[in-house]
Amino acid sequence: MMKRDDCLKALARHVTDADIVLPVYSTAFDWIDIRPGPLNYLSHGAMGLASSHALGLALGRPDKRVIVLDGDGSLLMNLGSLVTIGEVAPPNLYHFVCENGTYEANGGHPIPGRGNVDFAGFARSAGYRAVHAFSDLKNFEQQIGALLAEPGPLFVDLKIVSSGPQERDYTRLHGPHVRKAFRDALGAG
Amino acid sequence: MQVETDARATASLAGRNIIREIVASGVEYVVSVPDITTSEGLLRQLAQMKAPRLIRVCKEDEGIGICAGLAYTGKRALLLIQQTGMLDSINAIRGVAVEYALPICMMVGLLEKEPGVPPLQSKRYGVRIVEPILDAMGIAYHEIEEDADVGKIRPAIDEAYAASRPVVLLIGRRPT
Fold it and tell me: Distances in Å between the alpha carbon of B6 and those of A97, B116, B117?
């Protein structure tokens, strides 16, 4: 099992200023501390929808890599998006799920099927071009650069430990200034 | 008055006229879960066209997210669904379309609405509640009941993108 912030730091070393990144909930707070930037797409409006926002962005901007940092609880709310993404098959979409088995942002309660659900299996059967699962940080660090260099849609299941319940300031994710900054940055390039 | 009602009940709504307006609106993507009202007259025809591109989704709220992502990239999209799916997606519409003020354009077939009968006067509970819910959410909507109404489509979509706000086009009978 890995720590989320270690995984995100490893990923951040391979993310460029041109990439769009959609992190959700607890992952979003860690990510914007590790790699702040205007092309972080933080406002998803409803739990579970990050992968769907990402598909729209990937279709509309095929020149950019679109990287989703999903949660396991979030993805369970929108499993159909795996099938939709598998069918549309955008080559610029990279879908990571931080699997800690809990609704960390909502009190740390366990997700249904914790430990039994096979997220990589879901993505594989939905038609993602490539699917990987990591529980060892060194392996992830060694492979992530090459994985991001390949065409998508890519799915990566990161087996992580829970960070426990946390109090967060959600205006950092949902404030109008966040969306304006993203819109301006995407329009500029 | 009875004559007017009868005329509206027997009026026609051609799918090709709706599609013409969708195309003229600059819509590049139609995102859809099949709806029985628009299945034959709209969706089946759209599925045979190269543009706009049809994206089939598993659930309607997925479409809200996809249309939002496309909107940020400057691409116009139309979410073609049934009112049951719209009702199922209320939270996504609340968060993404209304609170984030994004131009989410929805074309919504009204399942089991009687042709020629205004939605508010329908005998169907699932039809009667649609417009009051949209009113409560502050979402603009237009009834598309017959060919004379299709002229509302392009201005409604243009206005949604100009003002960055959602709009709903309610399809009140099966297009032919």
Answer: 56, 8, 10
- Interatomic CA distance for residues B3 and B20, integer angstroms: 30
- Residues A76 and A109 sit within 8 Å (Cβ to Cβ): no
For B31, nearest residue in chain A (alpha carbons):
A56
The pLDDT value recorded for residue B9 is 72
Note the pLDDT tens digit of each residue in A32-56.
999 999 999 999 999 999 999 999 9
Helix H or strand E encompassing A145:
helix A137-149
Q: What's chain B's length in residues? A: 176
pTM, whole model, 2 decimals? 0.96
User: Least CB-CB distance to B62: which of A43, A59, A81?
Assistant: A81
Q: Say if residues A53 and A41 touch (Cβ distance below 8 Å).
A: yes
Cis-peptide into A23, omega within 30 deg: no
**Cβ contact, residue pair A52, B62, below 8 Å:** yes
pLDDT level of residue A174 (50, 70, 90 thresholds): confident
Q: Which residues of B touch A (CB under 8 A)?
A: 29, 55-59, 61-75, 77, 91-92, 94-97, 99-100
- Is the separation of the CB atoms in B93 and B139 below 8 Å? yes
Smallest CA-to-CA distance from A7 within A147, A161, A146 is with A161
User: What are phi and psi for residue B104, nearest 5 degrees?
Assistant: -90, 110
CA gap B171, B22 in Å, rounded: 13
Residue B54 identity (one-letter amino acid) = L
Segments in chain B below pLDDT 50: none
Cβ–Cβ of B73/A60 closer than 8 Å?
A: yes
Query: How many CB atoms are closer than 10 A to CB A169?
Result: 9
